[in-house]
Write a structure and sequence with these properties.
By secondary structure, this protein is mostly beta strands. It contains three helices and 21 strands. 42% of the residues are buried.
């Protein structure tokens, strides 16, 4: 059988590599030496990473690991900084799924308090591709789509996500891409530019672009999904190289077994400075892209599989 264009391949030391056309684009890292899993690097068309580990000038932000999920107040516990001694750990992988449309990984994570008590579970589905309906991606550009569903670890309980700027999906860009340490630019879907104009304001998407090498400008456009609670999100963005959609910026959110929290995001790794028209096209296409569903597989030797909701409905 021919090798699919999109692959996710497990690696030693608790890692999984995402490949497009045989070239790695990002890597999922879930080793227990870290308080929480993360994606690193996010490789741009030039081959340089658009993200980094930690803050360029402040060791107090070493918990910033490229692209990751975290939250400052989960039932009062700090899952953002590492001072809280909480942990997010991968319990198991459900699916590594190659294909000619996208490569998909589905995993189950558990969020535990400092005593090791499980508070919340997270089903994370991640997919990579370099195609998008109705939009032409340039050579070397690609998309990382993320879908996270949060439920109480104990289905009889509720979990309160407290009001905070910090959570859930976080992105720390490379030093040279930042405004403060490089030549970076921050732009939102409403056309506002810079931290002062954007911080705390709502937007459909956010872009951080800057130099990745002396010859290349590249960027990450971070898309909120219209089905997410509070859409369009308020954004926490900083000129020192940080951006995140703040799901709980203005209010607490409570989740139950019957009413979980599902969040969908898309990261576009692109050439050059922001092209706002292309970003608007990708946002529109993403808004109409069906969510994923994990289900038991009927295929031999396969435990679980992931399909889009429309495909899953057709299979029933």
């Amino acid at each position: 059988m021919p090798i699919p264009r999109y692959q996710v391949i497990p690696q030693p030391d608790y890692q999984a590599s995402f490949l497009i056309g045989g070239q790695e684009r990002t890597r999922w890292r879930f080793g227990t030496q870290y308080p929480r899993p993360f994606f690193y690097p996010l490789l741009g068309p030039s081959g340089a990473s658009l993200t980094r580990m930690g803050h360029p000038g402040d060791a107090g932000h070493d918990h910033h690991r490229s692209v990751w999920f975290a939250h400052h107040k989960v039932d009062g516990f700090d899952f953002w900084s590492e001072a809280g001694r909480t942990r997010v750990a991968q319990e198991r992988w459900l699916c590594y799924q190659d294909g000619n449309d996208e490569a998909i990984m589905a995993v189950q994570l558990v969020w535990s308090d400092p005593e090791g008590n499980a508070l919340m579970r997270q089903e994370l589905i991640a997919g990579v591709r370099d195609r998008q309906d109705q939009v032409t991606l340039r050579p070397g550009e690609w998309l990382l789509e993320l879908q996270a569903t949060f439920t109480p670890a104990d289905p009889r309980r509720t979990v309160t996500l407290g009001q905070t700027n910090f959570g859930f999906l976080a992105v720390r860009v490379a030093k040279s891409v930042s405004v403060a340490f490089g030549d970076g630019r921050i732009t939102c879907s409403q056309g506002r530019r810079g931290e002062a104009e954007i911080f705390g304001q709502t937007a459909d998407w956010m872009d951080y672009s800057g130099s990745t090498t002396n010859q290349h400008v590249e960027g990450i456009t971070y898309f909120d999904h219209p089905a997410n609670p509070g859409y369009p999100s308020a954004w926490h963005v900083r000129e020192d190289g940080w951006m995140g959609a703040s799901v709980c910026r203005t209010t607490d959110r409570t989740i139950t077994a019957d009413e979980p929290l599902r969040l969908r995001y898309l990261l576009h790794v692109h050439q050059g400075w922001l092209d706002a028209a292309r970003a608007a096209g990708i946002a529109a296409a993403f808004g109409h892209t069906p969510a994923w569903v994990v289900s038991k597989s009927k295929q031999k030797h396969t435990g679980y599989e992931v399909n889009r909701e429309s495909e899953a409905a057709l299979g029933q």
